[in-house]
Give the backbone structure.
Amino acid sequence: MRVGPGAYLLLSAVLFAIGVAGVLIRRNAIVVFMCIELMLNAVNLSFITFAKTNGALDGQVLAFFVMVVAAAEVVVGLGILVAIFRKRSSTSVDDVNLLKG
Amino acid sequence: MVFGQRLRALAGWIATLAVAAAFAVALAAFFELLSLPGEERTQILRGYEWLASGDLRVAFDLRWDPLSAVMALAVTGVSSLIHLYSIGYMEHDERRETFFSWLNLFVASMLVLVLAQNFLVMFLGWEGVGLCSYLLVGFWFNRRLLLVNPLGRLVEGEPDDTREVWAPPAAKKAFLANRIGDVGFLLAMFLIFATVGSLDFDDVFGQASGLAAGTATAIALLLFLACTGKSAQFPLYVWLPDAMAGPTPVSALIHAATMVTAGVFLVARTHVLFEASGTAQTVVVLVGAGTALLAALIAIGQDDIKKILAYSTVSQLGYMFIGVGLGPIGYAAGMFHLVTHAFFKAQLFLGAGSVMHGNDDDTDIKHFGGLRSTMPITFWTTMAAWAAIIGVPLASGFYSKDQVLAAAFEHGGVGRLAWVVGVLTAGLTAFYMSRYVFLTFFGERRWPEGRHPHESPAVMTLPLVVLGFLALVAGFALSTFTGEGGRFQDFLEPVLGAPAEHESLAAAFALSAVATLVAAAGAIGAWLLYGRRVDWLAVRRRYAGGWRALADRLYVDQVYEFFTVNLGRALAAFLARTVDQRGIDGAVNGVAELVGNGARSGRRLQSGLVRSYALGVLGGAVLIVAFLVFRP
């Protein structure tokens, strides 16, 4: 059975939605980062799909860019996370509310 | 410093000499005027140009003609005598040099008023005398002055005097009442300029006949409003009795002889405008007659000698306005009464001041009695003025008052009514003036223990003698029985015109006889009640109701007080609380509160929660995508 590009795009959308839901709902900071990675990978999947269907290489190049940026972002993000949570012992993202007005 | 101290003692003499010098100059100018033939007796001095704006040109022009000569002589002459008197009267006052400088400022302003050649310069003098009146009435602003209680000895337990009166409220009342009149003067000037294009007397009077009847009436009535303020006629007379809070020389000069006559002078000077409007003339005559009667009634019930004389002044001014309101037939009569009144009323006030001076500054007639033996000069000169004011034949008042009444009768119409009122008022005048004289100088002695009434020093009695003499002789020296052919009337003819009708000698005799008989009846009535040893206090108690109304000044003041003070305060409170505090402040504060509430609601977005910010980002992204996908 030949799976069309629609299935890949559907999968990408579902993964993205799950990622968004996770960012909004989960309280653990590590889990939030994982959901962000999930979103990025979902987008990568849709880039590759479109590259294949259009026969152009643009999508694949963009996927590389996204992967590089994701890696860099994880480094910085985890660094900030460790710095913040070294001060407090809790990993809940709700506790970082000093900007409450 | 040393020099100034020595000058202080001389302040009174310097001031008196200044005014006497002015009198001498006026006299010289007067004789110069006499040397000219009748038609040429007008000299105009063109002065420095004051205003030049658009079409309006006003300069400090002065006019010397018979009318201003009469006024100038009367003002400076009587003023010199009063200055001399003040030297003695104010001898112990620590601020007497201020007093004299203000008195001189007053004389200067009054002269500007009578010598003016245009309305604006006259207004300058008009305001100046109003200012000086305010300053001088409030001269003793830090002194407690007792107010004689109108109900004293009428009701058990009522004190003879009550309520410490402070001079400042009286001064303010005088100035404010004058101010209302001044609005009339200003509006009249605006109207004159708008219709005639100039404020110069010659220009305006030349074009007066060309004015529309409505305009002329409006101008004349507005000017008359100013006169009711300055010359204390109804409805603006209420300041004059209160102004008795000032020193007695002030009352004599300003509120008897000069300032209050400015209104009469105004009507005489602008008589052309009044002749252009019959309505205005009728109003003047009616107001004059009504005021004369009203004031005479109130005077009967007063116990304060200065208040009696104050209401008497208001009443006599009413006569003058009857005179000048009648038209050409009465101008000279009104002006003549102005002059004779200046003499006898100034004498009466200075005499009252002399009585006060010898009685510890007491003004209550209930505390006098039998003073003729202790102060003879004051007594005899006051009797001379008494004869003049009630119209004893051959005294000056007899001539002037009868001339006014005869002119009123001859005029017909409203003049006849004014004649009836005038004769009735003459009777009342005789009554209250005789009451004043009998209760003060005759009868049993009622002054308190320890008081030694004495005659005043020569510097005060000399003016009394001069004024008393003038009060007796000014009549037959200056005028005749009917007013025609008299020196006074002839002198004023170039300015005021000659009366159109001439009355017969018999008619004049008859009218005069009626008036004199009524006056005699009034005097005899007063003698019956107060001259013999009658217990007038018992009489007063029997007629308590009526007497109380008279003593309370027929409640005119109370009505005014209600409208101005009470209503004014209510209005001010309303504006302060409701409009200002609740309305305007409410609006401003409300805006601030609105902003605050908005901020408070907006602040709730800043929850500090990372997840709600993430939700916001998501929401924004969805909107942008939707826009990009679905845009038309």
Summary: The two ends of chain B are 98 Å apart (CA to CA). Residues 232 and 498 of chain B are 28 Å apart (CA to CA).
